[in-house]
Design brief:
116 residues; mainly beta; six-stranded antiparallel β-sheet
């Protein structure tokens, strides 16, 4: 289903639900685009979990939808308890759960506010 003309694209909100490690940031709100998630400090989404690869996964917006793709990480990426390592990008839904290393992230969609 295509977006109605003039409809604002949905922003992706990632929230850390559980982590055994200190997280300097525990929530990200992403504009449509492409983001690299991993342990390396130059990534767009930094997860300082030793079980997360330096460049672990790619989250991107395409054709009005958000997707995640594992980038050949050592420990894999789970989306709703399914390992997506070595597979095609997976569409993210509102309420999806992403597990990278020992860190659990919740997915939700938010509307862009007029203030921005």
């Amino acid at each position: 289903m295509s977006e109605a003309k003039g409809e604002k694209p949905k922003l992706l909100k990632l929230t850390v639900v559980k982590s055994n490690f200190f997280m300097p940031q525990n929530q990200w709100v992403l504009e449509p685009g492409e983001y690299i998630l991993g342990r390396y400090p130059t990534n767009d989404i930094v997860i300082p979990d030793p079980y997360v690869s330096r460049r672990h996964a790619r989250i991107f917006f395409k054709d009005g939808e958000w997707y995640i793709e594992d980038l050949g990480s050592t420990n894999g990426t789970l989306v709703n308890n399914e390992d997506i390592k070595g597979k095609e990008p997976v569409k993210l839904e509102d309420g999806s759960e992403i597990v990278v290393g020992l860190t659990i992230l919740a997915v939700s969609f938010v509307e862009k506010t007029e203030e921005e």
